[in-house]
């Protein structure tokens, strides 16, 4: 894309004018001056850089310098490819030029982009800091540790993870069950301690944060309260939180967040309960929608606010798409509960139900949607499945996407309970220290590397059922378009934007990212 010298600063603070980049439309100023969303984003960046200096005159100069900019000032796109047929793994295929094309043909496979129509803002992409991942990381040789950190978290040369999950005490992917409050009936949590996490998980997260240059949002999910707080007196097999411990459990969240902050790890958000309708052979706890609503409204929400943590992003549900609307409706229709809830978290394990994601947004547009867990295998077909889910979730208003374990060993663990199935996005042979970055790692990278936090989804449509695509406009004014070929054949297609087309070909089940 052609760049203008006036906008070479990389600053993203907001400006005083009511610009549409925050609302998804165009301001009256932009309409009068015929500035598209790309130019608006660039002009916003220019003002951010210049406004602190020579305000008189410079504003006029920068405005009119950019007022003549067009949304069609790009000439070429850089292309990245991952495909099984030629073993390409996020391969840089160089630049390809756009050519004039006034009208696409409905019979020619075409991905059509409208940069001027914007939708939700992205929070980021990433994986989960489980105990299993942290333990496996600790066993890596030093050079392999650096390789892993760079591959996952480096903002320039890696997958650039910026939205990551972790757990409150143990989950199924821990080497043992444990809590931060082992003393029974400790209602005041006098013996609360995160000492267990200081051995593996906290050092690992600190290394990741450093590699990511601090640009990471971390949210945490509990699998179960301590056994002494539950009706079944154990962490496994479901059970419920005893009413007499509602306040203690709310206080537990606060102590966790503050203990991690003391370690230098800021917590960005929380989910109320992982998979709250699933009775599992590992840590689990049942909350109906009404029970979750009441706990948030009467205990967790007020407690977070009382203790200065009201800005944390609190999320409900945290399970499959199937009944996510019912869970949202119960909580969001209660204004006393809804005031504490930032959004809804969800998974993909049972059915697709992508329309349910959109329905939650359409009914409650002020609430956010975060995909929070994707356990997966490590083969090529899984890569396609992950990409399909990501595209369709993003196109239905999802604001962030996090997969599950970042690193498992040759035995698909460690894990203290439950069957071991599949592999992971990255695996390690703990006998040799060798890392395997599996195909889903690269499919995921087609999103996480090129769609930055703060990017806004832009209109993107396909006229062919073999192709899925999503598109975003980044804060720096560059567009990133991700295209997935669902077919088992080589296919030609074109990317069409504002009277220009770029012709390309896609290998079977290939994923491509176009940046311009």
The major pleated sheet works out as: 10 strands, mixed
- The amount of helix comes to 25-40%
Reading side by side through the largest sheet, how are the strands ordered?
2-1-21-18-17-16-4-19-20-3
Oligomer type:
single chain
Q: What general form does the structure show? A: globular
Return Rg in Å: 24 Å
Compute the average pLDDT: 88
Counting helices, strands and paired strands, the structural category is alpha/beta
Q: What is the beta-strand fraction?
A: 15-25%
* Poorly predicted regions: 1-35, 39-71
Number of strands: 21
Question: What is the straight-line distance between the termini?
Answer: 5 Å
Helix count? 13
Structure, explained:
The chain is an alpha/beta fold and 516 residues long. Helices cover 29% and strands 25% of the residues. It has a ten-stranded mixed beta sheet. The chain has an eight-stranded parallel barrel with strand order 5-6-7-8-9-10-11-12, surrounded by five helices. Strands 13-14-15 form a three-stranded mixed beta sheet. It is globular. The N and C termini lie close together (5 Å). The N terminus is likely disordered.
């Amino acid at each position: 894309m052609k760049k203008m010298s006036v906008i070479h600063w990389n600053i993203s603070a907001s400006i005083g004018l009511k610009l549409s980049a925050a609302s998804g439309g165009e301001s009256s100023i932009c309409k009068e001056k015929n500035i598209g969303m790309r130019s608006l984003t660039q002009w916003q960046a220019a003002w951010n850089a210049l406004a602190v200096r020579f305000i008189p005159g410079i504003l006029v100069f920068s405005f009119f310098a950019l007022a003549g900019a067009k949304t069609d000032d790009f000439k070429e796109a850089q292309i990245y490819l991952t495909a099984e047929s030629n073993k390409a793994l996020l391969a840089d295929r160089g630049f390809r030029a756009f050519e004039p094309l006034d009208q696409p043909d409905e019979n020619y496979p075409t991905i059509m982009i409208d940069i001027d129509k914007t939708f939700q803002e992205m929070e980021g992409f990433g994986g989960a800091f489980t105990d299993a991942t942290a333990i496996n990381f600790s066993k890596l040789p030093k050079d392999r540790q650096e390789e892993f950190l760079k591959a996952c978290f480096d903002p320039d040369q890696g997958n650039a993870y910026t939205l990551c999950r972790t757990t409150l005490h143990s989950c199924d992917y821990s080497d043992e069950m444990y809590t931060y409050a082992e003393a029974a009936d400790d209602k005041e949590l006098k013996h609360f301690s995160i000492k267990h996490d200081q051995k593996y998980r906290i050092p690992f997260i600190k290394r990741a944060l450093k590699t990511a240059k601090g640009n990471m949002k971390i949210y945490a999910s509990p699998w179960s309260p301590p056994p002494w707080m539950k009706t079944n007196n154990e962490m496994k097999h479901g059970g419920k939180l005893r009413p007499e411990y509602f306040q203690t459990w709310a206080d537990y969240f606060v102590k966790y967040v503050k203990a991690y902050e003391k370690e230098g790890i800021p917590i960005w958000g929380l989910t109320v309960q992982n998979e709250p309708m699933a009775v599992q052979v590992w840590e689990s706890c049942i909350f109906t929608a009404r029970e979750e609503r009441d706990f948030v409204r009467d205990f967790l929400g007020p407690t977070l606010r009382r203790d200065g943590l009201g800005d944390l992003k609190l999320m409900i549900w945290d399970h499959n798409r199937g009944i996510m609307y019912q869970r949202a409706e119960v909580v969001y229709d209660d204004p006393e509960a809804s005031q504490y809830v930032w959004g809804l978290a969800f998974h993909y394990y049972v059915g697709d139900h992508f329309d349910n994601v959109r329905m939650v947004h359409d009914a409650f547009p002020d609430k956010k949607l975060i995909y929070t867990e994707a356990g997966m295998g490590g083969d090529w077909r899984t890569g396609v499945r992950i990409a399909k889910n990501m595209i369709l979730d993003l196109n239905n208003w999802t604001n962030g996407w996090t997969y599950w374990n970042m690193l498992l060993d040759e035995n698909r663990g460690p894990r203290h309970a439950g069957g071991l199935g599949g592999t992971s996005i990255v695996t390690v042979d703990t006998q040799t220290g060798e890392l395997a970055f599996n195909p889903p790692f690269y499919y995921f990278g087609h999103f996480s590397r090129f769609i930055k936090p703060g990017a806004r989804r832009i209109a993107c449509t396909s006229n062919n059922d073999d192709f899925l695509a999503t598109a975003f406009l980044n804060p720096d004014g560059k567009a990133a378009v991700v295209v997935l070929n669902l077919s088992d054949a080589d296919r030609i297609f074109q990317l069409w934007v504002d009277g220009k087309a770029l012709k390309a070909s896609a290998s079977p089940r290939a994923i491509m990212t176009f940046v311009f």
